[in-house]
Design brief:
This protein is of the alpha+beta class. Helices cover 41% and strands 23% of the residues.
């Protein structure tokens, strides 16, 4: 039998709130005496990293919000599937639906393990927020990147390019950005990789997860490999003033992810602006560029 602390008067029965302490409660049934042992179990001091000496309590006590959480996640998936979207036209210059879904999947791959690993490595929810909070902090900082990816993926889903004889117009939920042909100084094909420190950090975290006893799971290693090898192709448009404008048109496999993108370089070259094809490599995050 399991009880929450507010369900029984343990202090009145002489049970000390110290891990491992026990007390016996006696009751009489006719001539027979019945004893009930009460033992205080402190999950904060007795549940260590990757270990727990206790049998798992019933789900309604140990995980009181699990059912509610599953329902919320199911509703979130339905909302993602049924959310109204703008009807794309055949000649739209915009990111493909497949690339948007792929971006969301990448965000989930990053979010789920790095959000959940602190609870698995530390041994429980209490340890994740008390003695072993540094592990939680590092993991959740990595999970924060997934949240940022989700936000910018929403920007990419609203991204669209309009072409006129005078300029390119980049449309998104942030507004309209004009790129006039007569203000372009140079256009260059570039390749983007994640920063070196970011790739090394993910590899180190995957190594730590293996050492912690979770080596049977390939998800952290797969996440690290994805972060280390990802490279994206794009155009760097340098204007007369301001920082360059980047249009990322290919994924890490070299596939074009913007429908009808061939119209963009044709329009630039038709305006008399040469495009450098040397494929220069830079480092950074596409969402910040």
């Amino acid at each position: 039998m399991y009880f929450k602390l507010d369900e029984i008067p343990y202090s009145q029965w002489g049970l000390m709130p110290v891990d491992g302490k026990s007390v016996y409660v006696m009751t009489a049934r006719g001539d027979q005496r019945i004893y009930l042992q009460l033992r205080y179990q402190d999950y904060k001091t007795s549940v260590g990293a990757m270990s727990s000496p206790y049998r798992v309590a019933p789900g309604w006590i140990y995980h009181p919000y699990r059912t509610t959480g599953i329902i919320i996640m199911a509703l979130a998936v339905l909302l993602y599937i049924l959310l109204p979207r703008r009807q794309r036209l055949p000649d739209d210059i915009s990111y493909t639906t497949a690339s948007m879904v792929a971006g969301d999947i990448v965000a989930v791959i990053l979010l789920v393990p790095f959000y959940g690993l602190p609870f698995l490595i530390n041994g429980g929810t209490v340890q994740a927020f008390t003695d072993l909070w540094p592990i939680t902090l590092v993991m959740w900082l990595m999970a924060l990147f997934a949240v940022i990816i989700i936000y910018y993926n929403a920007w990419y889903s609203s991204f669209r390019i309009e072409i006129t004889p005078e300029a390119l117009y980049i449309l998104s939920f942030k507004g309209i950005r004009e790129c006039r042909f007569d203000e372009m100084k140079a256009v260059e094909v570039i390749s983007l990789r994640n920063p070196g420190w970011f790739r090394k950090l993910f590899l180190a975290l995957a190594f730590i997860s293996i050492l912690s006893g979770k080596g049977t799971s390939t998800q952290p290693a797969g996440t690290a490999l994805l972060s280390a090898t990802a490279a994206y192709g794009g155009l760097e448009i340098t204007g007369i003033a301001g920082k360059p404008i980047y249009i990322w048109f290919s994924d890490q496999f070299g596939g074009v992810i913007i429908n009808n993108f061939d119209r963009v370089p044709r329009a630039i070259e038709a305006a008399g602006i040469p495009i450098t094809q040397e494929d220069r490599e830079i480092e950074g995050f596409s969402m910040f560029m």
